[in-house]
Design brief:
heterodimer; A: 280 residues; alpha/beta; Fumarate Reductase Iron-sulfur Protein, Chain B, domain 2; five-stranded mixed sheet; 5 strands; 32% helix; B: 153 residues; Rossmann fold; four-stranded parallel sheet; 5 helices; globular; binds iron/sulfur cluster; binds FE2/S2 (inorganic) cluster
Chain lengths: 280, 153
C-alpha cells in the first residue's frame, strides 16, 4: 500500500494537479507518525501508511498556513473522510479543488482505538482515490454507543460526581478545539471578551460552560474521530459527551454527520413531525 | 473524592426556589401578562426573561441561569405552527432534543429544566406551570450540585 501511495502522490505532484500532499511521516517505527506537508515529488518517499496513523489530518484543510501552500491532496481514513463531507456541506472547503486519497483501514492505534471497534468505514466513502482493500460492514448502532451506554447505567448523582472530578482537571489549553477538524471558527466563543460569553478561568464553573459549549457546537457535526479526546493532556473523556449528542441525533432524527454530502444538517433544519415528548 | 455536602437547610423551611423563565415575546410573555391582568396568582419565585423567540434562546442561557443561582429553568414559547417567525420554535425543539441528552450525560438534573408551549391566551396555563415548577423545585431543594460547580475555588 505504501508503494502505491508513493506512486499516486508522485504523479499528483509531478503533473501539477496538486501542490501539496497532506500525509503522515514517521522518523522510525517506534515513534508515532506525525503530519507532513510534502511539496516536491522527490520527497514522497517520506510518506508512510501503517496502523499507527491515528491523526485525523483533515483539520489542516482549513488552516491558512496550509492553504497558502496551494491545492492539496490529503490522505484520510474512512472515519476522517467524514469530516471532509461536513466541511464541504458547511462551505468551508472547495471540494473540487482538492484530491482526497482514502486508505482502506482495518483499525489504528496500539491498543486499537475505541472507535475502531464499531467502525463501518473501513473503506472510505466520498474520496477520489482509494488505496488498499478492506470490507465495510454495517454496524449495530448500539455498538457505536457502547461506552456511553455503560456510562449511563450510573445514576445522575454518580455522573455529576464523575464529571466534577474530570472537569476539575481541564486546564483550558483548547487542544481539543485546535485538533478538531470541525472547530474551525476564526474566533471561538471561548475567546470572546467583549462581552465575555463564559468564564475563561480554568475553574469548574468556566470548565462546565466550555465543555457544554464545545460539545454542543459540534452537535450533529462531530464525526467521532476522537481526536479531541486523544489530544487532551488531562485525559478527559470528551468522547462520552460527543457520543451522547451523536446518539440523540441518530435516535431522534436518524441522522449521522458526514455520511451524506446532500443531507440537510440535523441542526439548521427541522420537521413539523419532530417528537416533543419533553415539552408540556 | 466526593462532592457531597450536608444540606445547609435540612428542613427546607426557608428555601424559596429561584426559577428563571426564558420566554418568547409573542406568546408566553403575553400569556404571563394575561395572567397578571386577570389577577391570577402564582408564586413570585419566577424571574422572567423575555427574548424575541424560542429560536433565539441560546443553550448557554440555560447554563447561565444555573451559574447565577437558579434552581430550575423554564423555556417557553409559541405552540408549533404559531411562531411569530414561522419556524423558530421548530428549530428550538430540535436543538433541545439533542441538548437534553448532553446535559443528562453530564449528570445535570433534568427535572430542573422545563419546556412548555404557552400561547398569549393561556394565562391560566402559565399560572399552573409556574405553580407546578415552583412546588416541584421546592421539594427537590436548592440545586446544590451546580452551586458547588460555581463556588470560587
Ligand atoms: S467551540 Fe464552537 S466557537 Fe469554538 S471553535 Fe468550536 S465550534 Fe467554533
Ligand atoms: S469533536 Fe472530537 S471526535 Fe468530534 S470531530 Fe471534533 S475532534 Fe473529532
Ligand atoms: S484539551 Fe483537555 S485540558 Fe485542554 S481544554 Fe480541552 S478538555 Fe480542557
Ligand atoms: S416567536 Fe414565540 S416561539 Fe418564535
Amino acid at each position: 500500500m505504501t508503494k502505491q501511495l508513493h506512486k499516486v502522490c508522485r504523479e499528483l505532484l509531478e503533473s501539477g494537479k496538486v501542490q501539496v500532499i497532506i500525509g503522515y511521516g514517521q522518523k522510525d517505527r517506534g515513534q508515532p507518525p506525525h503530519p507532513v506537508f510534502i511539496t516536491s515529488p522527490e520527497e514522497v518517499e517520506g510518506l508512510v501508511w501503517n496502523d499507527q496513523c491515528v491523526a485525523n489530518l483533515t483539520t489542516y484543510l482549513t488552516r491558512k498556513e496550509i492553504r497558502a501552500l496551494g491545492k492539496p491532496a490529503i490522505i484520510v481514513k474512512g472515519c476522517d473522510a467524514r469530516a471532509i463531507v461536513v466541511l464541504q456541506r458547511e462551505s468551508q472547503i472547495d471540494r473540487s479543488a482538492m484530491v482526497v486519497i482514502g486508505m482502506a483501514c482495518n483499525g489504528v492505534g496500539e491498543p486499537r482505538l475505541a472507535k475502531c471497534a464499531a467502525c463501518d468505514a473501513h473503506v472510505p466513502a466520498h474520496v477520489d482515490i482509494t488505496i488498499g482493500e478492506a470490507v465495510s460492514e454495517p454496524v449495530d448502532p448500539e455498538r457505536r454507543y457502547n461506552d456511553l451506554n455503560v456510562f449511563m447505567t450510573q445514576s445522575t448523582d454518580e455522573r455529576m460526581d464523575y464529571w466534577q472530578d474530570e472537569l476539575e482537571r481541564c486546564v483550558r489549553c483548547y487542544a481539543c478545539r485546535q485538533v478538531c477538524p470541525l472547530c474551525y471558527c476564526e474566533r471561538c466563543v471561548a475567546d470572546k471578551n467583549r462581552p465575555v460569553r463564559f468564564s475563561t478561568a480554568p475553574t469548574l464553573k468556566g470548565n462546565y460552560a466550555w465543555h457544554i459549549t464545545r460539545a454542543f457546537h459540534l452537535a450533529g457535526r462531530c464525526i467521532g474521530c476522537d481526536e479531541c479526546t486523544r489530544a487532551c493532556p488531562a485525559g478527559i473523556n470528551l468522547r462520552l459527551l460527543n457520543l451522547s449528542v451523536a446518539r440523540a441525533a441518530e435516535n431522534a432524527f436518524g441522522y449521522r454527520a458526514g455520511l451524506d454530502p446532500e443531507a440537510e444538517p440535523v441542526i439548521g433544519s427541522f420537521s413539523t413531525q419532530d417528537k416533543e415528548s419533553f415539552i408540556k | 473524592m466526593t462532592h457531597k455536602q450536608p444540606h445547609p437547610d435540612p428542613d427546607m423551611t426557608t428555601f424559596e426556589p429561584k426559577i428563571v423563565a426564558y420566554v418568547c415575546n409573542w406568546c408566553t410573555y403575553l400569556g404571563a401578562d394575561l395572567a397578571g391582568t386577570n389577577r391570577l396568582e402564582y408564586p413570585p419565585n419566577v424571574r422572567i426573561i423575555r427574548l424575541p423567540c424560542t429560536g433565539r434562546i441560546d443553550f448557554n442561557l440555560i447554563v447561565k441561569a444555573f451559574e447565577t443561582g437558579a434552581d430550575a429553568v423554564l423555556v417557553s414559547g409559541c405552540h408549533p405552527g404559531d411562531c411569530h417567525y414561522t419556524s423558530g420554535n421548530y428549530h428550538a425543539r430540535r436543538r433541545w432534543t439533542l441538548f437534553r441528552e448532553l446535559l443528562d450525560t453530564l449528570g445535570i438534573e433534568m427535572d430542573r429544566i422545563h419546556f412548555t408551549w404557552i400561547s398569549a391566551a393561556e394565562g391560566r396555563k402559565w399560572q399552573q406551570v409556574i405553580t407546578e415548577i415552583t412546588e416541584k423545585t421546592r421539594q427537590m431543594g436548592p440545586y446544590l450540585a451546580y452551586k458547588r460547580i460555581c463556588r470560587v475555588s
